[in-house]
Amino acid sequence: MQFQFLRDGAEVDSPEAQSQLPQTYNLPSLNVHDSGSYNCRYWTPGQKIPSKLSDPITINVYDREPPPSLSLDPPCLEYLLGEQATLSCVDPKVEEVTGYRFYNERSGDTSTYAPDPSGGAKRVFLALHMADAGPYTCKYWRAQSGQEILSVGSQPVSISVLDPPSQPALSMDPPTGVIKEGLPLLITCMAPRNTGERRFHFYKDGAEFIPGNTRSQIGTTRPEPGSMNVSVLRIPQASPDSTGKFTCGYEEKVCRKWVPSPRSQAVNVTVTADKVFLLRFLVVGGSFFIINGLIFLISHCCL
Fold it and tell me: Ranges for the Ig-like domain (predicted)?
């Protein structure tokens, strides 16, 4: 048998459209030009009289609607665990939109929403979880001829979810915490992860330690490009005022706000007097006392 396929009365089969089975006509990638009424017929080789046309099958192929726009509110690169965020999908003013779908491209999660009275649709995260992270896209559809005609997908928007800032680690040089007066003291605060912007704070006996009269300095190092996870408090010359209990903490900028971390474990600093200086002080002070005593005695005896 030989077969022939027709669309709207005109022959459409071609070698590249035929499958291995001679009675099958493939439409591997539909476009609007494939719309129409299809028939087929056959004949026996050697005969020129074809059979009657089959019953028609009508195919309607629609252009996909243009993509919607997808936005995130607040528009942040990162969010903290438990924060709130909203994805908004807005179509380009297409009439008779039936519904919207949001897709998490990482987890494969799909959620469907009816059109919002104000236009588009919103997916609200009342408290973000780690499973909510990933790139999102959205589509809208219209019901036509008993089918859902989906639009082209939007550009992706990513949600990144972070744990809240955790406790930093505090260390010092010398490690014992006992230092002679006049020697340099280094106290290092290290945050546990590398992220973007940070602000470090040091505390002495519960109050924030602000560099000032002690000529101390607070500096931030960058072990990796773009990170700020280590800060060092430098006191060039330790004094008795440097004795006390030190802690540190930091603030991390997440979603346009500064979020404080818990304070570190405390380290105790004890500044001891310089023995050479103390001996010199005693010798000079004692000599001065003896000389003054002798002058007092001589002056009284002579008088």
Answer: 168-248
